[in-house]
Amino acid sequence: MFKRILQLLYPEVCFACSKTLLESEDLLCTRCRLELPRPGLFLPKPNWLSLKFDGWMEYQDAHCFFLFSEGGRVQHLMHQIKYKGAQDLGRFLGIWCGAELNKYNWPQPYELILPIPMHQQRTLERGYNQAHCIAEGISLSTHIPILMGGVERIKNSQTLIHQNRQERFHVLEDVFQVADPSIIQGKHVLIVDDTLTTGATMLALGQKIKTAGARQVSFLALAALQ
Ligand SMILES: [Zn+2]
């Protein structure tokens, strides 16, 4: 009843398309739940996503849940998670993504989930790390534990928009630090991020943890640019 009154006063809207939600809907409207572009988590290799990683390092899987396009609904969705404090939305999408992972591939080969660490200063400014919210959701669905601490972002990376992938990769080489290698040694680590464009950030972290002793590395982006 109270929720109904609140909804009349402040109608809740869909995080992707901004349409007013029905009482039975939560966070996303039914249409967006059905229509948001999802390419499938396990694509036969090589594919457009694996090509972003192939040849740079040895890894097992590269997944993305949503396809991202300029000005599209997925971009709007990711903007809410990243800049508008929609942490619950991040967790919800992570739970959804994790449930899809369970359908595709069970038992999971991944032993630890590593959300891309955010620089301490940026975490203080934003108040949360959106990759961590998504990872929490995936962990809830899959029961794969999240790696807490031990891997840090020691540099606030500069704007990378005008650099090509090789330059980005070079800039990112010393961005991450494995402070405690013992927690990843011998493990298959699934690196999770909110959005993926070139894949340079994920690769930089992947190489870092591989060098520090991770047995295998896989990648999962909630949304990726094709
Ligand atoms: Zn919608």
CATH class group of the largest domain: Alpha Beta
Q: Helix share of residues?
A: 25-40%
Instruction: Give the strand line-up of the largest sheet.
Output: 1-6-5-2
Beta-strand content bin: 15-25%
CATH fold-type name of the largest domain:
Rossmann fold
Structural overview:
The structure is a single chain. The protein has 226 residues and is an alpha/beta fold. The chain folds into two domains: 1-35, no CATH class; 37-225, Rossmann fold (3-Layer(aba) Sandwich). 37% of the residues lie in helices and 16% in strands. It has eight helices and six strands. The strands form two sheets. A four-stranded parallel β-sheet has the order 1-6-5-2, with helices on both faces. α8 links the parallel β5 and β6 (216-225). The longest helix has 18 residues, at 87-104. The chain starts with a helix and ends with a strand. The mean pLDDT is 90. Zinc ion (ZN) binds next to α2. Zinc ion binds next to α2.
Short description:
37% of the residues lie in helices and 16% in strands.
Strand and helix layout:
Blueprint: H1 2-9, H2 30-35, E1 62-68, H3 73-83, H4 87-104, E2 112-115, H5 120-126, H6 130-142, E3 151-153, H7 165-172, E4 176-178, E5 188-196, H8 200-211, E6 216-225
Parallel strand pairs: 1-6, 2-5, 5-6
Antiparallel strand pairs: 3-4
The protein binds zinc ion.
List keywords for this structure.
binds zinc ion; single chain; two-stranded antiparallel sheet; alpha/beta; 226 residues; 2 domains; Rossmann fold; 8 helices
